[in-house]
Amino acid sequence: MNIRSTKVVIIGAGNVGATCAYTIINEGLCDELCLIDMNKEKAVGEAMDLTHAVHFMNRNMKVSASDYSACKDADVIIITASAPMDTSNDRLTWLTPSKKVMKSIVSSVMETGFNGTFLVVSNPVDLMAYYVWKLSGLPRSQVIGSGTTLDTARLCCEVGNLFNLDSRNVSAYVMGEHGDSEMVAWSTATIGGKQLTDVMNDNRSRAGKIDLEQLRVMTTKAGWEIFNRKHNTTYGIAASTCAILKSILLNENRIYPVSVCLNGQYGLKDIFLSVPTILDRTGAKEIVEIRLNEEEEAALRHSADVVGSYYDLLQD
Fold first, then answer.
1. In angstroms, rounded to a whole number, what is the distance separating the alpha carbons of residues 173 and 269?
2. DSSP state of 264
3. Looking at beta carbons, which pairs linking 85-89 to residues 24 or more positions away fall under 8 Å?
4. Helix, strand, or coil here: 14?
5. 52 with 273: CB under 8 angstroms?
6. CB 127, CB 307: distance < 8 Å
7. What Cα–Cα distance (Å) separates residue 197 from each residue in 134, 201, 261?
8. In what order do the strands lie in the sheet with 283-287?
9. Is 52 a catalytic residue?
10. 171 and 189 in contact (C-beta within 8 Å)?
11. Is the dihedral of CA 59, 80, 264, 299 positive or negative?
């Protein structure tokens, strides 16, 4: 009798990687969790600390620190490692230094024979996901960026706060680049089944002077509002990453706006952008093409142009 276990590897044991690891064990998402970091002692320390925490969790899990040999039989590899952040408030400024880090990581992973799913969290995430896809040679369905999953949650929180509602009553998608050019599919956004635009118009006294564009800007800047105060963002990105991971490992077929390689959807091809995507144990099972109006289509194409303009810098 052969009972298959699930294994997740996190590359990068810094603030984001360690918080992702803690969220994973807290939710009991896999049988084995392995941490890899350039600072091997840091990875060992985090693994020891997490192992002690497992005693109080709902599921026994093996947590360890290792080298790239651990990647061979992993189901999912989460990449959180990146170049040090600066204060420019522009994720694209991290491209050149992050490129060097990512190339080293992916080449080391693929040498082991890894054939699972990459879940890329490192910024600029859309460009790094594209780079991982190119370097790895894996099918497009097996490389996913965390994308605008967290941005979408931030938008729902902003709208929920505006109307004093649980944010989970809000259904909306932030799409495109995880960055300044991201757009919102307002025409499909709803609260309790009612169009968000109708809710805004029918409850103008509650919404005040806030309009849709202000909500988009607030969403786009939310991460920087956190970063400028605490010099990192951890809990939100860890929770959203684990939601994506859960849908993959547990074959949930949940729909999240993750960064995936488009193959003609929305009129775009071979570019990584966040769009609603069904996630199961195969990775990105199916891209969902929601109907956008003309203005939204133009905004998504603009976002694609912004991301695509940097692709020449990823050729080597």
1. 20
2. S
3. 85/227, 85/231, 85/232, 89/224, 89/227, 89/228
4. coil
5. no
6. yes
7. 40, 6, 30
8. 62-65, 32-36, 7-11, 76-79, 117-120, 143-145, 254-263, 269-280, 283-287
9. no
10. yes
11. positive
**Amino acid found at 212:** L
Sequence-ordered list of residues with C-beta below 8 angstroms from that of 47, at least 6 positions apart, any chain? 34, 35, 63, 64, 65
Give CA–CA dist 249/30, Å, rounded.
Answer: 8
Q: What is the pTM of this model?
A: 0.95
- Catalytic residue, chosen from 52, 178, 231, 302, is 178
Q: Which of 68, 58, 3 has the alpha carbon at shortest distance from 34?
A: 68
| Secondary structure (DSSP) of 47-112 | HHHHHHHHTTSSS--EEEE--GGGGTT-SEEEE---PPP-SSS-GGGGHHHHHHHHHHHHHHHHTT
- Strand, coil or helix: 292: coil
- Residues of the chain where predicted confidence (pLDDT) is lower than 50: none
pLDDT tens-digit series, residues 194-204: 999 999 999 98
What pLDDT, on the 0 to 100 scale, is given for residue 282? 97
Residue 207: what pLDDT?
84
DSSP one-letter code for 183: E
Q: What is the DSSP string of 58-75?
A: SS--EEEE--GGGGTT-S
3-state SS, residue 303: helix
Q: Within its chain, how far is the Cα of 71 from the centroid?
A: 20
Amino acid at 254: R
163 DSSP 8-state letter: T
pLDDT score of 250: 97
**Which amino acid type is present at position 255?**
I
